[in-house]
Amino acid sequence: MKQRATFNTKLGLVMASVGSAVGLGNIWRFPCEAGENGGGAFLIVYILCVMVFGLVVMLAEFFIGRASQKDSVGAFKTLAPNTMWKIVGYNGVIAAFFILGFYSVVSGWTLEYIYQSVTGGLKTDTVEQLAENFGSFTSDIFRPLLWIFIFTLITHFVVLSGVKKGIERASKLMMPLLFVILIILCIRSVMLPNAIEGLEFLFKPDFDKIDSKVILSALGQAFFSVSVGMGCMITYGSYFNKSINMPGTAVSVVTLDTLVAILAGIVIFPAVTSFGISPSQGPKLVFITLPNIFQQMPFGNLWSFIFFLLLTIAALTSIISIHEVITAYLHDQYKMSRRKAATIVSLSGFTLCIVCSLSFGILSDFKIFGLTTFELFDYVTAKLMLPLGGMFICIFTGWFIDKKVLKAELTNNGTIKFALFSAFVFLLKFIVPIVISLVFINELGMF
Ligand code: TRP
Hints:
Elements: H1 10-21, H2 24-36, H3 40-68, H4 72-79, H5 86-119, H6 127-139, H7 142-160, H8 162-190, H9 195-203, H10 212-225, H11 232-237, H12 246-274, H13 285-295, H14 300-333, H15 338-358, H16 373-400, H17 403-410, H18 421-443
C-alpha cells in the first residue's frame, strides 16, 4: 500500500494547521459575533470556550486522525468498525460542504475589495455610499460569482498540488506575512482618536449580558475559529508523522488563533468607535466600516489593499482545509484520484456558492426558518453541526477508545510527556459533553 502523505517539516505542519484555523472566522466572523453579542462579555466566554473546549476537541481530532491514518469518515470506520460512529464523520463532510458554500462567497468579496482598493473604487466620503457600494455589489448576479469562481479556481489548484507542495508551502509563506500585516494595522488603529472606547468595548466585560444565546454564539465561534467539530483536524492529523508532539501542536494552534482574533478585534473596534459607527452591524462590519476608516486615513487605498489582501490570504489557507476534508474523503473512500476528487468538490462547492451568493440579491426573499441560504448555512454549521460534532468526537474518544491506546498515541509511546492526561480524559468524558448538552437544552428553551 502507498504510504500516506505527511507534512514535510514541523514548522510546515503547525503553519498548515494555523492556516486552517486562522481565517475569515477570526477577522470577519469574530468581530461580527463580538459586536452583536456585547463585546467584552462575549470575549471572555469565547476565550474560555476556545482554550478549554476548542483545545480538547482539537486534540481528540488529532488523535483520531493520526491513529487511523484516514479521512474523517474512514477514521471512524477504522477505529470503530461496524458501528454508527461513522455518522460523526459524515456530519463533518456535510458540514464542510455547507461551510464551503458561504465561506467562498465572503472570500470572493475580499477579492473584489482588493480590486476596488487598487482601482480607487472605495474612494467615497460617507459610510452611506460605502454601504450602498457593498449592497449593490453583493446583490449583483454575476460580479460576486466571478470573484467566487476565481477564488475557487485558486483553491482548486492548491489542493490539487497535494499535501506537501500545495497546502504546506502555501501556508508557510502566507501565515507569517499575515501576522506582520495584522500587527501594522493594530498599531495604526490604536493611534486613532477615541481608540480607547473601542478597546473598552472589546475588553471590558459586562457580565449581565451573558446568557445562553451569547454562550452558544461563543461556543460556535470558538469551534468555527479553530476548525474543529467536523473532522478537519482529523484529516490534517492523518498527515502528521508519528514523532509530532500533538498536545504541543494543539496548544500552539489554539493560542495563535486566539491571538489573531484578538488582534483583529484591536484593529476593528477602535477604528469603529473612532468614527462613531455601531459595532453591531453583522457581516457588513468589515466591508463597510473598515473601508470608511481607511479612506479617512492617509494612504487609505494602500491600507485597504493591505487589509483585504490579508483577509484573502487568511481565507485561502482555511478554505483549502475545508476543501481537503471532502477531497480526502472521496480520495480515500472511493479510491478516486486526487484530481477527480478535487474537481468534484470544486464544482459542487461552486454550485452551492451560487445559491448563497444570490441570497444577497434575487433570492433574498427565499427563506428557510426565516433565514436566507447564506445565513442558514452559517447558522446550521457553526451553531449546530460543529458543537454537536465536537461533542460526539469527545464522547467517542473519552468513552469508546481504550485509554492505554489514547495515552500511547498522545505521548508517542511514552517518549513525550503529557502531564495533564487525566484532566484531558475527564474533560473528554464529562465536562465537554455535559456543558454542550446544557447549552443546547437551555437554548431550546427547555429550562
Ligand atoms: N477556522 C477557519 C476560520 O476561522 C474556518 C475553517 C477552516 C473551519 N476549516 C474549518 C471552520 C473546519 C470549521 C471547521 O476562518
